């Protein structure tokens, strides 16, 4: 074997070894593998307080399992909807409802017009925390939810 053949063999062996080590590293660390993200679903519904549509309010779905994707929706006049891209994944969720407070510019314009500064929607405290309200989101069905809150 000549010197150039030996050098070429050593270079090829070194290159192969580097490729093998990179492949081994990728296998061990999971590089190049993507976790599958759960399918997000479109949902819509109505939210009421004492049988009257309410809004504007924010509705937040809090995941109960690590692989779930939650979401937050704006309900205007009781109606809310999300697209599939921004909706939750399948599963059971805790629901939090909170009043939507106006931006600073809105407060200033309300003050100038002598209107009430804050929303007249008073969400009972029990719905502003996790644990009182739950929903199930299912794949393959129309997810139209009725969130019925009670001030009692």
Write the layout of secondary structure elements.
Layout: H1 3-29, E1 43-49, E2 52-53, E3 57-63, E4 71-75, E5 79-82, E6 91-99, H2 104-112, E7 133-137, E8 143-149
Parallel strand pairs: 1-8
Antiparallel strand pairs: 1-2, 1-5, 3-4, 3-6, 6-7
Report on the structure:
The strands form 2 sheets. Strands 1, 2, 5 and 8 form a 4-stranded mixed sheet that branches. The N and C termini lie far apart (93 Å). With 152 residues, the protein is an alpha+beta fold. The chain is built from 2 helices and 8 strands, in the order αββββββαββ. About 18% of the residues have low confidence. It folds into 2 domains: 34 residues; 107 residues, Carboxypeptidase-like, regulatory domain (Immunoglobulin-like, Sandwich), CATH 2.60.40.1120. It is elongated and about 50 Å long.
CATH class of the largest domain: Mainly Beta
Count helical runs: 2
- Straight-line distance between termini: 93 Å
> If you compute it from the alpha carbons, what radius of gyration comes out, rounded to the nearest whole angstrom?
27 Å
Number of strands: 8
> How many domains would you count in the coordinates?
2
> Low-confidence parts, pLDDT < 50 over ≥5 residues?
6-15, 17-33
- Architecture of the largest domain in CATH? Sandwich
Which shape, going by the Cα principal axes? elongated
Q: How much helix, percentage-wise, in residues?
A: 10-25%
**What is the CATH homology-level superfamily of the largest domain?**
Carboxypeptidase-like, regulatory domain
**Structural class by secondary-structure content:** alpha+beta
Largest sheet: 4 strands, mixed
Strand content: 25-35%
Average predicted confidence as pLDDT: 81
Look up the CATH topology of the largest domain: Immunoglobulin-like
């Amino acid at each position: 074997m000549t010197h150039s053949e030996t050098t070429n063999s050593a270079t090829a062996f070194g290159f192969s070894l580097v490729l093998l080590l990179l492949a081994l590293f990728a296998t061990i660390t999971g590089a190049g593998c993507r976790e599958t993200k759960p399918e997000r679903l479109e949902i819509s519904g109505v939210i009421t307080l004492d049988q009257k549509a309410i809004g504007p309010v924010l509705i937040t779905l809090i995941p109960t399992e690590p692989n779930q994707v939650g979401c937050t929706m704006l309900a205007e006049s009781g109606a809310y909807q999300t697209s599939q891209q921004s909706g939750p994944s399948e599963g059971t969720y805790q629901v939090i409802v909170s009043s939507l407070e106006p931006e600073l510019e809105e407060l200033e314009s309300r003050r100038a017009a002598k209107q009430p500064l804050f929303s007249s929607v008073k969400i009972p405290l029990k719905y502003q925390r996790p644990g009182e309200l739950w929903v199930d989101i299912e794949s393959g069905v129309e997810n139209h939810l009725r969130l019925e809150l009670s001030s009692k």
